Amino acid sequence: MSFWLGWVVGSWPLFWALFISFVLGTAYSINLPLLRWKRFAVVAAMCILAVRAVIVQLAFYLHMQTHVYGRPAVFSRPLIFATAFMSFFSVVIALFKDIPDIEGDKIFGIRSFTVRLGQERVFWTCISLLQMAYGVAILVGATSSFVWSKIITVLGHGMLASILWNRAKSVDLKSKTAITSCYMFVWKLFYAEYLLIPLVR
User: CA 186 to CA 128: how far, in whole Å?
Assistant: First the structure.
């Protein structure tokens, strides 16, 4: 239905976003020879980054600009910020998803970064990457020429960074339930960012 919708709408950026996401999602998940790329840490991370950080940001932006509004495609400050910020988030999601699954990955011989480096090291690497991303977001917000954008984006990203840090410090890394809960919380932060991206100027 999504392909049909993309075709009926007549937007090539939207159609290709749906198609490429489908191809990568299938290669990531389906259990066939040479596929199920989620078994390979680097390839899995690249799939997630390609879809979440690049395709979603660029293709949907091009869809809105060229098809909906009929404007020329200009790579704006918010678009560049969104792509860079979501790249950090996508890498974190790709790393974080394997932390609660370490036992299963060991059993099935999946050499994830968590299996190689350990849960604690990967967990704090993820938290550090997100804190770096929020730090850059605060700097981007602080350099805005619009006062309202500066205030909202600096305070918004500062609050999210603080909430994440406090949550991370309370996680029991020996509890799969606690780690999984934190992973789902990272996804909430991911979607919360879409409330702030439109306000970046």
Answer: 13
Q: Are 42 and 65 in contact (CB under 8 A)?
A: no
Token output for 139: 């700097």
In terms of Cα–Cα distance, which of 156, 17, 140, 132 is closest to 77?
140
Please give the Cα distance from 45 to 28 (Å, whole number): 10
Consecutive H or E run containing 148: helix 147-169
pTM: 0.85
Distances (CA, A) of 92 to 15, 17, 43, 150, 191: 27, 22, 14, 26, 14
The tokens for 137 are 């977001």
* DSSP H or E run through 136: helix 119-142
Task: Report DSSP letters for 45-103, one per residue.
Answer: HHHHIIIIIIIHHHHHHHIIIIIIS-PPP---HHHHHHHHHHHHHHHHHHHHTTSTTHH
For the chain, first and last CA: distance in Å? 35
The tens digit of pLDDT for each residue in 21-78 reads 999 999 989 988 888 887 777 888 888 889 988 998 999 999 999 999 998 888 888 8
